[in-house]
Amino acid sequence: MLTLVIPDLHQDLAWVERVLATETGWDRIVFLGDYLDTRFPRQVASLGETVDWLVEFAREHGDRVTRLLGNHDLPYLEVLQQVEAGATDPLTIRFPAGVEILPRHVRAVAEGWRFPFRRSFRLLVEEEGWLLSHAGVHPSFWPEGGNPRDSLARLEAEAHAALANLPTTESPLLEAGAARGGFQPVGGLTWLDWDEEFEDGLPLPQLVGHTRHFGEARPEGRSWCLDGGQTTYGRLLDGDLAIGRA
Asked: 112-146 pLDDT, tens per residue?
């Protein structure tokens, strides 16, 4: 079983295509989020092209693909769930603070990521004995008591509830910690800072993105941050990790 783990896209579809041209024999693929980022240079794909690419990739490969959410993606879901609930006037939509989302961006995402596609995104997943999320799970979020499987199931239920309650949720699982300018002691699953907040203290080793270090994937204990700035990705072959480069 070969599982590819692709960190932060940031609309760089050419990089993803290079990875997929190299890795032709994969069984499963997990994207770690941050698909959308309108701040990136113009030479990457547009937001609309990225949205359409993800939908087409899902159509082609079905349940072999898992899509996790990053901190750059969640604000779009916040806005779209308000639109889905009937808010059509931009003046009535609560736009997340500090995020540059324009009406044309909302239209592009809304046209591509229709229900139920956008409901298929997740915050974390266990693959071949590894816990995968965009930024990582701090030990303070790990449910105590029971065996690791039960704790993971409880954490998955909490993450699902947090997404379902957007945009009214105030779950720490979705908020930034002090290292990233937030008010929580540590960041949640889309915000945890690898350099200042991450701890390799869970029963499972973790694979994350989010904290970029160009050209390098970095270990911390048994866990790894794969975000090399669109240069590195993970290969899980029967549970053993190797770092790929493209």
From this structure: 888 788 889 999 999 999 999 999 999 999 998 87
Name the DSSP letter for residue 215: T
Residues in the chain: 246
Contact 207, 6 (CB under 8 A): no
All structural domains of the chain with their residue ranges: 2-245
| CA-to-CA separations, 206 to 169, 176, 198, 224, in angstroms, rounded | 25, 19, 10, 6
DSSP secondary structure code for residue 73 in this structure: T
Which of these, 16, 14, 13, lies nearest to 4 by C-alpha position? Answer: 16
Q: Does the global pTM surpass 0.70?
A: yes
Contacts of 245 (CB under 8 A, 6+ apart): 228, 231, 232, 233
Specify the CATH number of the domain 2-245.
Answer: 3.60.21.10
Q: Are 208 and 226 in contact (CB under 8 A)?
A: yes
Buried b (16+ CB within 10 A) or exposed e, 186-196: bbbbbbbbbee
Chain center to CA of 142:
18
Q: CB-side exposure of 191: number of CA atoms within 13 Å?
A: 21
Contact indicator for 234, 217 with CB cutoff of 8 Å: yes
